[in-house]
Design brief:
14 strands, alpha/beta, six-stranded parallel beta sheet, 399 residues, 12 helices, elongated
């Protein structure tokens, strides 16, 4: 009888240990239930479609962990007032957190601050805003632009006629990027900006803008443009087939990689670059929100940016002439709209808000081509990333 009692006691201890061990990597208690609101005010973008798919994939993965995440998605092409209404709708739904991709730098601040005052965790992704109590979970958009602008300036030998094709004028990410471009090109007096227009992060619009530039500007040595329209820009150049093919910045997207290869076959000296702007940044923001909902606090020392409310996620990687063949082989067969991606793990989210250094975010491919990070299963899992990401700008300036 004594042996039986001892056996039962040991079995109970083992069960308790196993229970705690299996739950140690969860950001909060088992059976947690959260309603997360998503505000997206721009739907004319394949990048945004992938962003939303990533979020849906992540919500399903959380359910597998015993964390019930329900997404309430407000996604529609709207102006500032329309996005304010989106956010109000989410507040009325009494969501626990809001993930917002803001259409304006300042206009959303009052409604977002109201959400914070009501106890809602608010995360701005993709671009930085200054709303009090809101955390930005973003890549550094200014540095994102600096990387390709530096590469272009160096590839041109510091001089030449350059055209700029930007995104939506006034949009937070675009303004941050254009500030980075100006900062870089101001250091190269030999570079002359001979044209600037908006491609509105739309491939067809970008193609038309570039076609107009080619028809009206006699000499173009270089083209600086952004993701969401670079494939259209390069299509215009390829169609025109100028005698001197300009050096062109591009995008880390399957369609662009494929077109890059086609151009390279005809023009072996063609050079380009694609800096990853991950749609998975929204899921990285969701991971941070889950940590905060579970009771974690942000270390003030972890915050930076102009308003000291930003958690910067490292830019995942850069596609350049040196590694182009490798990335083409890996992603060239993906749907044309697929953007090379990166998402932080749950353990990385913990480290990020604690102010600790994290690795560059890795991405895994789902069967449907969307990028999603598998749920972290052990406390140390983030130490081993699914893929090793390159690289600093010093490694990207292939001449």
């Amino acid at each position: 009888m004594r042996n039986r009692k001892l056996f039962l006691a040991l079995a109970l201890v083992a069960l308790i240990i196993a229970t705690f061990a299996s739950g140690s990597s969860h950001p909060t208690k088992a059976a947690a239930k959260y309603t997360i609101g998503i505000s997206n005010g721009f739907v004319g973008s394949e990048w945004r479609t992938q962003m939303l798919q990533n979020l849906d994939d992540a919500a399903k993965a959380y359910k597998d962990q015993g964390i019930d995440v329900t997404l309430v998605v407000e996604s529609k092409d709207v102006d500032v007032q329309g996005q304010i209404q989106q956010i109000q709708n989410l507040i009325n739904r009494k969501v626990n957190a809001i993930i917002v991709n803001p259409n304006d730098i300042k206009a959303l601040n009052p409604i977002l601050e109201d959400a914070v005052d009501q106890g809602i965790v608010v995360i701005s992704i993709d671009q930085e805003i200054s709303a009090k109590g809101v955390y930005n979970v973003v890549i550094d958009q200014t540095e994102w632009a600096r990387i390709s602008a530096r590469w272009l300036a160096e590839a041109l030998g510091g001089k030449g006629d350059v055209v700029l094709i930007e995104g939506f004028v006034g949009h937070p990410a675009n303004e941050a990027r254009m500030a980075g471009v100006k900062e870089v090109f101001d250091k190269y007096p030999g570079i002359k900006i001979v044209g600037r227009d908006s491609g509105k992060w739309d491939q067809a619009t970008g193609q038309k803008v570039m076609s107009d530039f080619l028809a009206s500007i006699p000499n173009i040595d270089g083209v600086w443009t952004q993701d969401g329209m670079a494939t259209g820009v390069l299509t215009a150049i390829n169609t025109a087939n100028p005698k001197k093919f300009p050096i062109t910045t591009g995008e880390a997207r399957a369609s662009y990689l494929t077109l890059w290869k086609q151009v390279l076959d005809k023009h072996p000296d063609f050079k380009s670059i694609g800096v990853v702007n991950p749609p998975g940044i929204a899921t990285s923001g969701l991971r941070v929100a889950i940590e905060l909902l579970g009771g974690a606090k942000v270390n003030p020392a972890a915050l930076s940016g102009a308003s000291k409310n930003t958690l910067y996620v490292p830019i995942p990687y850069v596609v350049d002439p040196k590694n182009f063949a490798d990335y083409l082989a890996k992603y060239g067969s993906q749907p044309a709209s697929y953007t090379l991606d990166g998402i932080i793990t749950q353990d990385d989210a913990k480290a990020l808000i604690a102010g600790k250094m994290i690795a560059t975010p890795a991405a895994t491919m789902s069967a449907g081509g969307s990028a999603t990070m598998a749920a972290t299963k052990s406390a140390g899992a983030s130490a081993t990333m699914a893929a090793t990401m390159s690289a600093t700008m010093a490694a990207t300036a292939a001449k």
